[in-house]
Specification:
Layout (H helix, E strand, L loop, with lengths): L23 E3 L4 H4 L12 H6 L13 H13 L4 H14 L1 H10 L1 H8 L3 H7 L1 H4 L6 E4 L6 H5 L10 E5 L15 H15 L6 E7 L5 H4 L14 H18 L4 E4 L4 H11 L5 E3 H21 L8 E4 L3 H18 L3 H5 L2 E5 L2 E2 L30 H8 L3 E4 L9 H10 L4 E4 L11 H7 L5 E4 L6 E3 L2 E3 L2 E2 L6 H11 L6 H12 L19 H18 L12 H10 L9 E3 L4
Parallel strand pairs: 1-16, 2-4, 3-4, 3-5, 5-6, 7-8, 7-10, 10-11, 11-12, 12-15
Antiparallel strand pairs: 8-9, 13-14
Helix pairs in contact: 3-5, 4-5, 4-7, 5-6, 7-10, 10-20, 14-15, 14-21, 17-18, 20-22, 21-22, 22-23
């Protein structure tokens, strides 16, 4: 991963509380230093530190560099027999030495990304109660709502926490209800926030809201660690969520709240309830929408499609699909002057019953209702299956968030390609086995004319003698930078304009803007630089809309960039000094 260079401008901002350079005060002595993942350096403690913190006799004598430790840890990692064992090894390292943990991943990001996150993290979540060694994060359960504030106080108060990721575990990574194991998705998202945007690991809090589970395998598992009861819903559930949000805002009034993997009937509803009042975000809805919009902006630039004319079909109308629809609709309205209602008419959404129509009534979620077609627009004589909709609509864009493998058939793609010069096809379902169509097939069926982005990594496809690089719509290129921008600006809320600014900043990094055979989105390996761009765009949008509460944000562009960079945590050992008495 690219490491950002230091600048002469950084010196003027090193006094900031989040500035991640210079000496680090440590309150411990002896073995307590070594058992603290935040302060532990293992074999890299200097001679002076060993003397100051009474570490002689607790460590082997040879003093090593962080780079030497990374080399050893990499060898240990590769010796593990499978990806789940590697995931477990990394979790153990994280609990022992967080600097070494992040430095190892940063050094081998491309190789390790799928192990520390999807798909392997899904396996770890499914096996959470059996792999459990030590807790990481905050465990709140619906039976103890009156103790939530007390339990949160174990993790500090006031300005101690910048970023909270919270999940209720109902819909995890395409594997469904995982109950208390959802704590690992909160942990994983925060790992990415640190890796990709420098969110301080000591200033973040992973949370699971345990409401029970409807997963029979977990309920029947004698080792299951969560509440052994069916998932609670309705008023009691809503009260639980509200009690948590209220307590979190009271304990950590500056913290940004990131909702993760909530169920379809709750995700959008809760986001709509809290986002007018709280700086909050749902990655499944807004993150997916933002990164997909960025890929679309780049694709429209390459193919000369105007937003005002674009026809978009979305196959799969869960949290991700509707989140994408909302993001596209909001952008069309903002950029063209159309109303939201007019913009939504350019988007056709399908789910299990086929095209969403008003006659579905109560089968529609509140989030789906704005995209349901009335009888005049879509009479019964018109088929509601995907092929019929593509034939009728003649879309420029086909997006898959259905988790239905092979749903984009040859007939569907060829029909689409008959009507548009550059079909934009995004099979986004992941993991890989759930993709709606492979880029290789899409490329073949469109005679090499398709612009593509996928939800999982795929190899390039051949177009004549040229390779076409397939972009991966990876939320990790987007959500960390958004969070960084909100945290640093202390924005009161995360607005639609701030999200659009983030999408545009990501799209501006598209390699395809310079070379059409390059991917529509940049590679995740360059994500820290991308996060700087996104954070800057989000901060400027927050200032323009009057949401930013931070008073010390520089006006000068160069100073603003350096102000952001100096507050991004880097996995480097800082000199340890004794904590001063206060």
């Amino acid at each position: 991963m690219f490491t950002m260079p230091m600048s002469k401008h950084l010196a003027k901002f090193r006094h900031l509380p989040r500035a991640a350079s210079g000496p680090l005060e440590c309150p411990y002595d002896g073995m307590n230093v070594i058992t603290s993942s935040q302060y532990n350096k293992g074999s890299a403690f200097t001679e002076e530190e060993r003397k100051t913190f009474k570490l002689h006799g607790l460590l082997p004598p040879n003093i090593q560099t962080l780079e030497e430790q990374v080399q050893r840890a990499s060898q240990q990692y590769t010796s593990r027999l499978d990806d789940l064992a590697k995931n477990t090894f990394m979790a153990s390292m994280k609990s022992q030495n967080e600097v070494l943990y992040y430095k190892l991943i940063q050094t081998h990001l491309k190789e390790m990304f799928g192990v520390i996150y999807t798909p392997t993290e899904g396996d770890a979540i499914q096996n959470y109660s059996r792999l459990f060694r030590r807790p990481d994060g905050c465990f709140l359960n619906i039976k103890q709502q009156d103790r939530i504030e007390e339990y949160l106080s174990n993790f500090g108060r006031g300005a101690d926490v910048d970023y909270i990721v919270v999940s209720d575990g109902e819909e995890i990574l395409g594997i469904g209800d995982q109950g208390v194991g959802a704590i690992l998705i909160s942990v994983a998202k925060l790992v990415l926030a640190t890796l990709c945007a420098g969110i301080h690991p000591s200033r973040q809090l992973p949370v699971v809201l345990d409401c029970g589970t409807d997963n029979k395998e977990l309920l029947d598992d004698e080792l299951y660690l969560g509440l052994r009861q069916p998932r609670v819903r309705g008023k009691e559930y809503d009260q639980f969520i509200d009690t948590f949000v209220t307590a979190a805002r009271k304990m950590f009034p500056r913290a940004y709240i990131h909702f993760e993997d909530f169920g379809l009937r709750n995700a959008k509803r809760l986001l709509d309830q809290y986002r007018p009042h709280v700086p909050c975000f749902n990655d499944d809805i807004q993150g997916t929408g933002c990164v997909t919009l960025a890929a679309l902006i780049a694709a429209f630039h390459v193919s000369n499609i105007k937003l005002a004319d674009a026809r978009v079909v979305i196959f799969g109308s869960g949290s991700a699909g509707i989140g994408i629809a909302d993001q596209i609709g909001d952008t069309i309205a903002t950029e063209t002057g159309k109303t939201i209602q007019e913009a939504s008419k350019q988007i056709w959404c399908l789910d299990k019953p086929g095209l969403l129509v008003e006659s579905l009534g109560n089968q529609l979620t509140s989030a789906q209702v704005p995209y349901a077609r009335n009888h005049d627009e879509w009479p019964k004589r018109k088929g509601r299956d995907l092929l019929s909709v593509v034939r009728e609509v003649k879309p420029h864009v086909l997006i898959g968030t259905s988790t239905k493998p092979k749903a984009f058939t040859e007939d569907v793609i060829r029909e689409m390609a008959r009507h548009v010069e550059c079909p934009v096809v995004f099979p986004l379902s992941n993991p890989t086995r759930l993709h709606e169509a492979s880029p290789k097939d899409i490329n073949c069926w469109t005679n090499g004319r398709a612009l593509m982005a996928t939800g999982s990594p795929f190899p390039p496809v051949e177009r004549g003698c040229v390779k076409y690089e397939v972009a991966e719509c990876n939320n990790s290129t987007c959500f960390p930078g958004i969070g960084l921008g909100v945290v640093l600006s202390q924005s009161r809320i995360l607005s639609d304009q701030m999200l659009l600014a983030a999408a545009k900043a990501l799209a501006s990094r598209s390699p395809a803007l310079k070379e059409p055979n390059q991917p529509l989105l940049p590679n995740v390996e360059n994500v820290r630089e991308i996060s700087v761009d996104i954070a800057r765009a989000v901060i400027k949008a927050a200032i323009n809309e009057g949401h930013a509460q931070e008073q010390e944000i520089p006006n000068d562009e160069t100073d603003l960039e350096e102000w952001i960079r100096v507050q991004m945590w880097e996995p480097e050992y800082r000199p340890l000094v004794k904590e001063r008495l206060k």
